[in-house]
Design brief:
The protein is of the alpha+beta class. The chain has three helices and three strands, in the order βαβαβα. It is globular and about 35 Å long.
């Protein structure tokens, strides 16, 4: 079970392609993971340049158990 005190972050970013690529690698190596997806847009930012903000509106984070971190690091660059 992956909990806040025994996890390490493998990825954090705005690229959904990279996020999916990392998840596929973790699945291929049968490694449990946890994801967190946050909305990075503030209320004030929603009124200006909506198209640009929509591209980068989500922040994706992927976590694995500490014991799996070193094993998977070589597959994720």
């Amino acid at each position: 079970m992956i909990l806040i005190w025994n996890r390490k972050e493998v990825y954090q970013g705005v690229s959904v392609q990279k996020f999916n690529e990392i998840r596929n690698v973790l699945r291929a190596h049968d490694i449990s993971y946890k994801v967190k997806i946050r909305d990075s847009r503030s209320r004030a930012g929603r009124n200006r340049d909506e198209e640009h903000h929509a591209m980068f509106s989500k922040i994706y984070s992927v976590y694995v158990h500490r014991r799996d971190f070193d094993r998977i690091r070589k597959y994720i660059r």
